[in-house]
Amino acid sequence: MKDTRIPLYLVTGFLDSGKTTLLCDTLNMDYFDDGQRTVLLMCEDGEAEYSPEKMSKLNTRVIPVNAPEEFTTAFLDEIDRRYQPERVLVEYNGMWPIDLLRQLHLPRRWGLYQAIHVIDGTTFEMYRANMQSMIIDAVSEADLVLFNRCTPDMPLSGWKRSVRAANRMAEIVFEDEKGEELEVEDILPYSLDEPHITLEDDDYGIWYLDAQEHPERYTGKTVTFKAQAMTGSKLPRGSFVPGRNAMTCCVDDIRFFGFLCQYPKARSLRKGDWILVTAEVKFEYSPIYEEEGILLKALSVEPAQAPEDPLVYFR
Predict the structure, then answer these.
(1) What is the tally of helices (H) and strands (E) in the chain?
(2) Contacts of 131 by beta carbon, 8 Å cutoff, 6+ apart
(3) Better-predicted residue by pLDDT, 51 or 132
C-alpha cells in the first residue's frame, strides 16, 4: 500500500556544516520544485541564509525555532493545523540532543521519510575529538551521512569505518568543495587475493565492518583471528560468537562485534575466554540474524593470550 503520509525530511549537523546549503539545493531540484506547500523548520542560523523571495517562489514557509523547549509535539501539531503542509523539512540544531527527536510524537498525518546527517570534512576531526558521542548519536539515526568540503588527502576511509561502526545501514557519501562526489577506496591491511586471511589484532574491526558491507569478498575463504568467546543458552546448539569489544565513541559506548560461529565443542568454551579461531566464511540465513549474514564454520579453536589492548577502535 502506498504511504500517503506527509513526508518529513530531517537534516542534522553542527553549525555551518552545510545544512542550509543542502536544503536550498534540494528545494531547487526538479523533483522538489513541484509547488507543494512546504514548511521548513529552522532551528539555528548559520552563515548561509534562506532568501525570502526564493522561498516564496518555491511555496516554502520558513519558520524559526529558537530553543529546544519550543520543539514539542504540541508545536508540530500547531504547525500542521495552521499551515496544512504537504511536505516538511527540519534543519535541526546540532547542539540540541537527539533524544529530543526520539521523544517527539509526529502529527498523525506526518511520517519521517529521510534523516540526513551533514558533516564538514574540514572540521570533522576537531568535533570528533571533542564531541564524539554527539556525532555518534546523530549518525546512528541517519539514513544518509554526507561529508562535504572533503579533499582526497583526508582520511576518508577511516571516517567511513567510524560511521559504519555506528550505523551499518546508512548510506555514506563524500563530496568535494564543488559538491562533486568522491570515490572512497576501502584500504585494507590484508590481501583479498589470498584464500586464507590472517588478521593482526588491530585488523579485526576493519575486517568485521568490511565483511558486513561486502560479504562476497570473504565467502568461501578461511580467516584466522583472535577473539573472545561469547556463549549463551539463546544461541543455537553447537555454536558461539567469537568477537571483540569495540569502542565506537567513548568508554560508555562499548559494544561487542562478532559473527555467529558453528563449533561442535562450543559448550566447552567459557564466556570471555580469549581464543584463536580459524574458520570458513559462509553467507547464509540464520534465525539469530533473521536474515542472511556472515556465518563462520570453525576449523580450529585454540586458547590464546589477550592482546595488549583488548578493545577495537574504528579509525
Answers:
(1) 7, 15
(2) 14
(3) 51
